[in-house]
């Protein structure tokens, strides 16, 4: 009997080796990681350079406590990250995971308004469906039924007004303009922030809003005195083929707070955080003089060293451009699969954050009976391809889609191999 508390009763393969886009288990079976774990392993597996940077940092300076010091590696990293994202003047707040990062963003937004003498602004508008994290606050902010019900009551429900998901049938501006009605209904003087994923991840199969959406959202937020939080935990760090995902369509938009995770240290260490624009930082520091919030392991030097080594790889190997190019190749291949497999209703996404929307060929609708995506994913796993079946998109609880997001370092030949395995899984399942 195992003493490990697994997420479910199914047994888990035990990984013994990992390299590039491949993982090997203890039976010798090799799998192509088509979803980078949970869209984490952006630079691929087995990067000895990242491990060496972490070891060197641990040897040189390993804190045995957190939060009372900065470190040279953190100072360097914050500067490098602001330059990579093209967010001059932004301040990096480091934490250990995406949920902590979103909790931090929500608290920062609330404190920002308190310091401005507007303590009544506590609500955070989010979308349905959406996933912002597993901790109770981030889960309350999320627009997904499946995980909420089991843990109710969450934080007070009226604190999270909901906006509909992006509608590709509207122009980006018309789509974003729907935020006005949500703000008016919530009472604008009670709203602290609007938070969204610029490309929706697990909850809606890489749904991408049209050009103009984020610029208009930022404009409306400014008009109403509300902060714009871009949750780029999954879509960020180059995965969508751009450094800052809110600028996906080339818009000159700068969110007040950008939340990052997963790809920051690409799974090598627990590292996430947020980038706060100068005006947010200055307002908070100019009031109480401190952000009254923190976590013990925030900015741990070994995690930050991993982040720095990962950023070296992302920049040195031009992985943002690679995500754009390999993403176009993978999307074209998925279009070809869609033409041959009637249960594939749509394929979409950008860069290497792509979604395969499944459904009943007879009705042309995604099915609320759960199972199709899991069946395809299970068959793919047997064949040696890992994918990420999502939930939420169909009725806010269940999903009928697969998310694909291999490491940004995937080669053209490996993209073809991925497509061949998915083709077979769709045929068999
Ligand atoms: N935001 C988004 C958009 C995510 O996809 C996730 C994780 N899937 C999170 C937040 C939470 O991150 P973590 O699991 O690291 O807490």
UniProtKB/TrEMBL annotation:
<keyword id="KW-0663">Pyridoxal phosphate</keyword>
<dbReference type="InterPro" id="IPR005814">
    <property type="entry name" value="Aminotrans_3"/>
</dbReference>
<dbReference type="InterPro" id="IPR015424">
    <property type="entry name" value="PyrdxlP-dep_Trfase"/>
</dbReference>
<dbReference type="InterPro" id="IPR015422">
    <property type="entry name" value="PyrdxlP-dep_Trfase_small"/>
</dbReference>
<dbReference type="InterPro" id="IPR015421">
    <property type="entry name" value="PyrdxlP-dep_Trfase_major"/>
</dbReference>
<dbReference type="GO" id="GO:0008483">
    <property type="term" value="F:transaminase activity"/>
</dbReference>
<dbReference type="Pfam" id="PF00202">
    <property type="entry name" value="Aminotran_3"/>
</dbReference>
<dbReference type="InterPro" id="IPR049704">
    <property type="entry name" value="Aminotrans_3_PPA_site"/>
</dbReference>
<dbReference type="GO" id="GO:0030170">
    <property type="term" value="F:pyridoxal phosphate binding"/>
</dbReference>
<keyword id="KW-0808">Transferase</keyword>
<comment type="similarity">
    <text>Belongs to the class-III pyridoxal-phosphate-dependent aminotransferase family.</text>
</comment>
<protein>
    <submittedName>
        <fullName>Aspartate aminotransferase family protein</fullName>
    </submittedName>
</protein>
<keyword id="KW-0032">Aminotransferase</keyword>
């Amino acid at each position: 009997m195992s003493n490990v508390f697994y997420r479910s009763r199914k047994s888990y393969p035990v990984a013994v080796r990992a390299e590039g886009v491949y993982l090997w288990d203890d039976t010798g079976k090799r799998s192509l990681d088509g979803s980078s774990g949970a869209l984490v392993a952006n630079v691929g597996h087995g990067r000895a350079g990242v491990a060496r940077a972490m070891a060197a940092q641990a040897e040189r300076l390993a804190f045995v406590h957190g939060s009372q010091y900065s470190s040279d590696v953190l100072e360097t990293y914050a500067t490098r990250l602001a330059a990579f994202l093209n967010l001059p003047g932004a301040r990096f707040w480091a934490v250990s995971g995406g949920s902590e990062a979103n909790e931090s963003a929500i608290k920062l937004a609330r404190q920002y308004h308190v310091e401005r003498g507007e303590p009544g602004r506590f609500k955070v508008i989010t979308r349905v469906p959406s996933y912002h994290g597993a901790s109770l606050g981030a889960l309350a902010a999320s627009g997904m039924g499946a995980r909420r019900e089991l843990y109710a009551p969450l934080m007070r429900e009226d604190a999270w007004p909901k906006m509909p998901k992006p509608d590709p049938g509207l122009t980006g501006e018309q789509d974003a303009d729907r935020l006005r009605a949500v703000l008016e209904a919530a009472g604008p003087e009670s709203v602290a922030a609007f938070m969204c994923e610029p490309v929706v991840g697990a909850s809606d199969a890489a749904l991408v809003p049209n050009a103009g959406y984020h610029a208009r959202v930022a404009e409306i937020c400014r008009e109403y005195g509300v902060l714009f939080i871009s949750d780029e935990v999954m879509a960020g760090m180059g995965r969508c083929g751009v450094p800052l995902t809110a600028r996906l369509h080339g818009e000159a938009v700068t969110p007040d707070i950008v939340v990052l995770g997963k790809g920051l240290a690409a799974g090598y260490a627990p590292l996430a955080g947020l980038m706060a624009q100068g005006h947010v930082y200055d307002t908070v520091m100019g009031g109480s003089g401190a952000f009254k919030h923190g976590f013990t392991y925030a900015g741990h030097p070994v995690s930050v060293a991993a982040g720095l080594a990962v950023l070296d790889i992302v920049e040195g190997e031009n992985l943002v451009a690679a995500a754009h190019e390999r993403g176009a190749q993978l999307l074209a291949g998925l279009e070809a699969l869609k033409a041959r497999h009637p249960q594939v209703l749509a394929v979409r996404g950008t860069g290497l954050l792509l979604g395969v929307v499944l459904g009943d060929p007879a009705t042309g609708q995604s099915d609320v009976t759960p199972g199709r995506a899991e069946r395809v994913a299970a068959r793919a796993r047997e064949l040696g391809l890992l994918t990420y079946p999502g939930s939420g998109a169909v009725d806010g609880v269940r999903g009928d889609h697969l998310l694909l997001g291999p490491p940004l370092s995937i080669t053209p030949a490996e993209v073809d191999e991925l497509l061949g395995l998915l083709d077979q899984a769709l045929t068999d399942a």
